[in-house]
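This part of the workshop introduces the protein records we will be handling. Getting from the letters to the tokens is the skill we practise here. The record below serves as our worked example for the rest of this section.

…
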Amino acid sequence: MIQSNLPVLMAKHGVRTLAEVVRQTGLSRTTLTTVYYSRGKGIQFDTMDALCEMFGVGVGELLVHTKTERK
């Protein structure tokens, strides 16, 4: 499963609200909410680029893979 580290990055950088991320990146709140809660089926490269630039991280720090057990 791929999960977003956006909540962790926000806390680490003292960013309290998604509204602040919206202001700094120009991304829509809807898009950021989807990324924040690891919902949705994909993420645009432009979205990843904007978030990586804002937090000064690579894609591997923004998105993490965790193993899930299959039933």
Summary: Residues 12 and 67 are 24 Å apart (CA to CA). The beta strands are 2-4, 63-65. The first helix runs from residue 6 to 12.
